[in-house]
Amino acid sequence: MITVKENPAGFSYIEVQNSSAFAKVALQGGHLFQYKEKGKSPLLWLSEKSHFETGKAIRGGIPLCWPWFGAHPEDDTLPQHGFARTALFEFVSSDEPDENTSEIILKLTSSDKTFALWPYQFELLVQITVGRELRIALTSRNCGTEPFSISSALHSYFAVSDISQVSVQGLERRAYWDKLTGETSIQQGLLRVNEEVDRVYQNTGNTLLLVDKERTIQIVSKGSASAVVWNPWKEKTKGMADMEEAGYKRMLCVETANVLDDAQRVEPGAEHRLELVVSE
Ligand code: BG6
How confident is the model at residue 142 (pLDDT cuts 50, 70, 90)? Predict the structure, then answer.
């Protein structure tokens, strides 16, 4: 069943329920903020203090960072992580091909509002498939006459039982840019998190494993050769109004990205597709 709902503040979202899984997707940001397979615990972390308000990004789930990731390269007065995560998407279509699978497609199209922030004509399609696995495909189409370049991320906040027990497999020997020090290093062994982490890994393969005490989450990507790993840890969390104090212990962002050397140039009439398949 696929139903459009509204919270008391008038914030619209789509509820998806089938024999295998349950999910919620906000029209603002095309933002999936809940996904739970039947009989399993939620796959994604969602802050108890998250805003669900027009114009404010949701803290948790899978925000879409687009058409730039992080601070704008030339103008830091522009919104961090681009404008897509706070823009209102259009609900294009839905399908329920079988009792275990539901699919929805949302779209953001260039408008006067987006031209004020980014001078290109585009269509951004988000295709979300909710089933025994979760699939998200982000298609960036150039509908104008000039090429454009995008950096982006499916900024997944994974739920973990205890951050001190978690490791990420698949990043060994990859180079990463540490956003906290500005230095580039090589990942030695498995990634474990016991302090603030904010890194952009380059030339990544297409499968990462998030190994937790109780489960292993498999993160498979297509159209991506970079990944961002982020945890704000204790001090930074204190300064974040939309995150509960102990929240950092229960989440790890492993983001499927097109960042730094992996930013994508899209020619007029062409498109780039970034895909993520997550399963347990
Ligand atoms: C990560 C960035 O992807 O997102 C971090 O690498 C940033 O630098 C984090 O702090 C959260 O960003 P925001 O804008 O949602 O607070």
Answer: very high
Q: Look up residue 109 and give its amino acid.
A: T
Cα–Cα distance measured from residue 157 to residue 268, given in angstroms and rounded to the nearest whole number? 33
Mean of the per-residue pLDDT values of the chain: 97
Q: ∠ at Cα 167 (257, 64), nearest 5°?
A: 25
Q: Using CA atoms, how far apart are residues 124 and 271, in angstroms rounded to an integer?
A: 9
Give SS3 for 213: coil
Distances (CA, A) of 277 to 92, 104, 112, 129, 176: 21, 15, 33, 9, 23
Ligand 1 site: residues with CB under 6 angstroms? 57, 70, 80-81, 155, 179, 198, 228, 230, 255
From 15, 155, 235, 271, the catalytic residue? 155
Q: What is the pTM of this model?
A: 0.98
Distance separating alpha carbons of residues 74 and 68, to the nearest angstrom: 11
Per-residue pLDDT reduced to its tens digit, 76-130: 999 999 999 999 999 999 999 999 999 999 999 999 999 999 999 999 999 999 9
- Reading the block at residue 55, the tokens are 């114009």
